[in-house]
Design goal:
Blueprint lengths: L5 H4 L16 H24 L4 E7 L6 H19 L6 E8 L5 H19 L6 E7 L12 E7 L16 H6 L10 H25 E12 L9 H15 L5 H5 L10 H11 L2 E12 L11 H24 L4 H18 L3 E11 L2
Parallel strand pairs: 1-2, 1-4, 2-3, 4-5
Antiparallel strand pairs: 5-7, 6-7
Helix pairs in contact: 2-3, 3-4, 6-9, 7-11, 10-11
C-alpha cells in the first residue's frame, strides 16, 4: 500500500458474506489445528508453575471469523483439565480479543453464546467463569497494564507489518527496480527493507509484551515463515503479477502500482531466534515448523482445478481486499480477483505449493 497508515486500513473482510473472512479462513483454521499441540503444551507448562485464581489471556490479531473462538475453546478446555488434575477449583478466565480498530469485533461477540453452549455440552457446567472483552489497537505498542497477562497467543498476525517498509515509497531506485508488490528474488534493496521493517516491528512487539506479561508467563505465536529471505512470498507475487497485467492493459495506473506494497513479511526461523535473543526479555522454548497445502480449502479431492482456484482466491480477497481498495479503488476488485482465479488455476496445474509456518513458544524471563 502507499501513503495511508496500515492500522487505518488493515482488517479482514467482515460480516458473513461470500467474500468475508468468516467464510474464507479455512487455511488459517488448518494452521491452528496443526499448532494446537504447542498451544496445549505451553498452557500445561504454565500451570505446572502457577495456578492463578484469575488467568488473564490475550488473543492478538483475533480477526472477525470463528478461528479466535476455536482457540478460546481450546484454552478453556486445557485450563479446566490442568486445574482439575491438581484438585484445584477452575479459575476465572479474563480473555482479551485484540485487533486493529477496523476489525469486525461484533462478528466475534455474536458467536460467543453458541461457543459457550458447545463447551457446556461437552464439559458440563464445571467450567470457571469466563469474561471476554475487545481490545482494539496495534500490538506494535502497549495494550495492557504492566505484569498483567499470564498467556498470550497469536495466529497468522505477527507477519503483518506496522507499515510499508521505510524508504520504499517515493524511492526512485526502488520504484525503478520494482517488479511486484512484495519481496522478490533479485531485488536486494526491497528484500533488505522488508527484513529491517520486520526486525524493528518484532522487537517492538517483544518489548511491549515483556512489559505486560508476568514473570514465567507464556507466549505462543504462529506465523507464516520461509526458508530463506526471498522465497517467502510466492502467493502475493502471483497477486502482484495479476495487478501488473492490469497495468499493462491500462486498467490500473502504473504510478499507483509503483507505490503499492503489501505490508507483510514471512521471516526465517533463524531470523526469529536472533531477534528474540537480541531483545532479551524472553527465553525461547522452541521454534517448530509445519506446512499446509495452499489448496487446503478444497477438502474434496474430486473438485476441479477451477473450483480449487476460486477457494484460494477467496482466501486472499478476504485478507487483502481492504488494502487494495485503499490504493486502487473498489472498481478494480472483481476484475482483479477473476483474473487471479485464472492465474492460480494455471499455477495449480503446473506445481504444488505449500505454506511454511513457524510456531514460536517463549517464556517471560524472571
Amino acid at each position: 500500500m502507499g501513503s495511508m497508515k496500515v492500522e487505518d486500513v488493515l482488517h479482514m473482510v467482515g460480516g458473513v458474506g461470500k467474500t468475508s473472512y468468516t467464510n474464507n479462513s479455512r487455511l488459517q483454521k488448518v494452521g491452528l489445528i496443526k499448532a494446537r499441540p504447542s498451544l496445549e503444551e505451553n498452557l500445561r507448562d504454565l500451570y505446572s508453575t502457577q495456578l492463578p485464581q484469575c488467568v488473564k489471556i490475550a488473543e492478538l490479531g483475533s480477526s472477525s471469523g470463528p478461528n479466535a473462538l476455536t482457540v478460546l475453546s481450546n484454552i478453556i478446555t486445557v485450563t479446566e483439565m490442568c486445574y482439575r488434575h491438581k484438585n484445584h477449583p477452575a479459575p476465572d478466565l479474563k480473555v482479551f480479543l485484540n485487533d486493529l480498530p477496523g476489525n469486525d469485533f461484533n462478528m466475534i461477540f455474536r458467536s460467543l453464546p453458541s461457543c459457550f453452549r458447545d463447551l457446556e455440552e461437552k464439559k458440563g457446567r464445571n467450567l470457571g467463569a469466563c469474561f471476554i472483552s475487545g481490545t482494539p489497537g496495534s500490538f506494535y505498542g502497549r495494550l495492557f497494564p504492566k505484569n498483567f497477562l499470564h498467556f498470550v497467543h497469536s495466529s497468522y498476525s505477527i507477519h503483518w507489518l506496522s507499515e510499508v517498509p521505510k524508504g520504499l515509497v517515493g524511492n526512485n531506485e526502488a520504484e525503478a527496480m520494482k517488479s511486484n508488490i512484495c519481496v522478490t528474488k533479485g531485488v536486494p534493496l526491497i528484500t533488505k527493507a522488508y527484513q529491517e521493517q520486520f526486525g524493528d516491528d518484532f522487537t517492538l512487539f517483544l518489548r511491549s509484551r515483556a512489559e505486560e506479561i508476568v514473570s514465567g508467563g507464556r507466549m505462543v505465536l504462529t506465523i507464516k515463515g520461509s526458508t530463506e529471505a526471498e522465497d517467502n512470498m510466492w502467493d502475493f507475487q502471483l497477486l502482484g503479477m495479476t495487478l501488473m497485467d492490469m497495468v499493462a492493459e491500462g486498467l490500473i495506473a502504473e504510478e499507483k502500482f509503483r507505490k503499492f506494497y503489501i505490508p507483510f513479511h514471512a521471516p526465517t526461523a533463524e531470523d526469529v531466534r536472533k531477534l528474540i535473543e537480541a531483545e532479551g526479555s524472553f527465553t525461547l522454548c522452541r521454534v517448530e515448523t509445519f506446512t499446509v497445502n495452499w489448496d487446503v480449502q478444497a477438502e474434496q479431492p474430486t473438485l476441479d482445478l477451477h473450483t480449487k482456484a476460486k477457494f484460494m482466491a477467496g482466501t486472499y480477497r478476504a485478507v487483502a481486499e481492504p488494502l487494495l481498495i485503499s490504493d486502487f479503488g473498489e472498481s478494480i476488485v472483481e476484475e482483479l480477483f477473476n483474473r487471479f482465479v485464472r492465474r492460480i488455476e494455471k499455477e495449480m496445474a503446473m506445481k504444488k505449493y505449500e505454506y511454511l509456518n513457524l510456531v514460536i513458544s517463549m517464556t517471560r524471563k524472571k
